[in-house]
Design brief:
The chain is α/β, with parallel strands linked by helices. The chain has 3 domains: 131 residues, Rossmann fold; 122 residues, 3-Layer(aba) Sandwich (Rossmann fold), CATH 3.40.50; 80 residues, Rossmann fold (3-Layer(aba) Sandwich). 42% of the residues lie in helices and 14% in strands. It has a 5-stranded parallel β-sheet, with helices on both faces. Strands 2-1-3-4 form a 4-stranded parallel β-sheet, with helices on both faces. A 4-stranded parallel β-sheet has the order 11-10-12-13, sandwiched between helices. α2 runs parallel beside α16 and α8 crosses α17. The protein is globular and about 60 Å long. Iron/sulfur cluster binds next to loops.
Length: 379
């Protein structure tokens, strides 16, 4: 079992690629049986079916963070998701209060493929956010801004929020978090997803002209006039999800024309016009709940990652479920976690030579936790 120090792997990845899915699945089951409750496998809803079948808990970003925070018995978390999720799990599972209870023993957090990142998270780098904060300070008082980072961001950004009285949000609690932030100060800087920020703020009645877009590559003031910054309530960062930005209102129109009565259900990472034209919206967890609660015969066109929509179609044959785009929109980085990587990382973990260990440094962890705990207190 992992010591928390990454040594040279006993097992190389390549041979695992030659094994059949059945062989991989039975070897994964073998490690799970050996490690028992010492191992917790978390799976995000966007994971492929073969992988999600091996997760102890599947969930959206909020549920998985809550599970990592609640993990008391396990010695290792294998996160079938993307890098920022594994970082969050490490911060929550290895906070000092939990380390004290375990006599200093860390929970090893493993990401089966280190290349499983998030293109949206990469759109806001800590240097860019620090530079924006400094530049904002030349136009408006930064003491009047609460920074809010979507959980889809690097730990360094969460730590930035922690240091500046800010908070983290997920797509399930963005409205509650924004309300909290606007009760602290008159303005919010929301990053990295402009769409989640805009959709949430619009739903709260904030006008579009009070939400200037900060472009980190613009030459001055993020591309805004001084007046726009002065009248802002929510400053949006120019980032987006490459998967959810593919859905358009013309897709919605085509479905409504072809299937009268169809319901359009989308994730709030979609652009505003799609979000507003949809019948319902919500995090991946909320999308699943909405479909589960609907009567048989309901027709849906769902705008979120392809693997989740396909799984919903399989699990709900009593309903008619369509994917809200003629183009395949799948999260290529989530898809990097496959059975060979999962089996390889589990067998190395069991052999005491863990691969893909995620360990956030102490200072970043401490400040990220401030921002995460403010969020978890609201959830
Ligand atoms: P949720 O899990 O909050 O629905 O977010 C979706 C997502 O994009 C995860 O990367
Ligand atoms: Fe990032 Fe979008 Fe993939 Fe989620 S679906 S991990 S936001 S790229």
């Amino acid at each position: 079992m992992a010591s928390g120090i990454e040594a040279a792997p006993v097992y190389e990845l390549e041979p695992y690629r030659q094994l059949s899915n059945n062989e991989l699945a039975s070897r994964i089951d073998g490690v799970r049986a050996d490690l028992g409750r010492r191992l917790l496998i978390l799976g995000h809803h966007y994971q492929q079916d073969e992988v999600i079948a091996h997760s102890d808990i599947r969930g959206d970003s909020l549920r998985l963070s809550q599970m990592a925070a609640a993990s008391d018995e396990c010695r290792a978390i294998v996160f079938c998701g993307v890098h920022f999720m594994a970082e969050t799990a490490d911060i929550l599972a290895n906070q000092s209060e939990k380390l004290d209870r375990r006599d200093g023993r860390r929970v090893s957090v493993v990401l089966p493929d280190m290349a499983a990142g998030c293109s949206m998270a990469d759109m806001a780098e800590i240097d860019q956010v620090e530079a924006a904060w400094e530049e904002l300070g030349e136009s408006i008082d930064t003491n009047e801004i609460t920074p809010v980072t979507y959980i889809n961001s690097a730990a360094a950004l969460k730590a930035f929020c922690g240091r500046h009285g800010g908070i983290v949000c997920t797509s399930s609690n963005a409205a509650a978090v924004l309300k909290w932030a606007l009760a602290q100060t008159r303005r919010v800087l929301f990053f990295p997803d402009q769409h989640l920020g805009r959709n949430t703020a619009r739903s709260m009645g904030i006008e579009l002209d009070q939400m200037p877009l900060w472009d980190p590559y613009a030459e001055i003031r993020g591309g805004n006039s001084l007046a726009a910054l002065e009248s802002s309530r929510v400053l949006l960062w120019k980032g987006h999800c490459s998967v959810h930005q593919m859905f358009t209102t013309s897709h919605i129109q085509q479905f409504r024309e072809k299937y009268p009565g169809i319901k359009i259900l989308v994730h709030p990472e979609c652009p505003l016009e799609v979000f507003e034209a949809a019948d319902e919206s919500g995090s991946t967890g909320k999308i699943i709940e909405t479909v589960c609660a609907a009567p048989p015969g309901t027709k849906w066109a769902i705008g979120t990652e392809l693997h989740l929509v396909n799984r919903l179609r399989e699990e709900h044959p009593e309903q008619e479920i369509h994917f809200l785009s003629p183009i395949v929109c799948m999260c290529a980085t989530m898809y990097r976690i496959d059975l060979p990587h999962l089996c390889w990382s589990l067998e190395n973990l069991a052999a005491g030579t863990p691969v893909g260990l995620i360990e956030v440094d102490h200072d970043t962890s401490r400040w990220s936790l401030e921002a995460l705990n403010r969020m978890l207190a609201l959830s």
